[in-house]
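Following up on my earlier thread - several people asked me to post the actual chain instead of describing it. Fair enough. Here it is, all 156 residues.
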Amino acid sequence: MKKVFCALLLVCAVYHGVFAQTSGDFVIEGTALTSYTGSAAEVVIPANLGITAIGFNAFGENDRITSVVIPEGVTSIGNFAFGFCGKLASISIPESVTTIGMTVFAFCTSLTSITIPASVTSVGDYAFAGCYSTLAPAVRDNLVARFGESIFYDPW
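Reply from S.P.:
Thanks for posting it. Predicted structure:
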């Protein structure tokens, strides 16, 4: 009975993504990229990882990255995914993304280049807190027109 229970527990854990797998510098749980462990400044997330989400705080507080390219197939970027990445200057978001969470780019104080594709229908509050002055006025105006001023509010 004990062996059967342990086997069932293991199957359930694997099915629910309890065990993370590592692919190079990327930690993946299920279909979510949950952590970046590399030291590169320019990060290109490989398309062959099968991820559909950038998870909570996956790149958060990384003081090395300057640019990130997200592959097609990713549909959501989780809360705080890139928060406090002080050197992050540019990010490429594919057309497959529909949802961007709260505080995703909060205090990315070097962020100057970002294009939010038309496929994105939801951007969480404070997504760009602390970034208002770094983005070009045309970019800010477009983001505010699409998603409202709350994306630039600074809750701190």
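The first strand starts at residue 21 and ends at 23. That should answer part of your original question.
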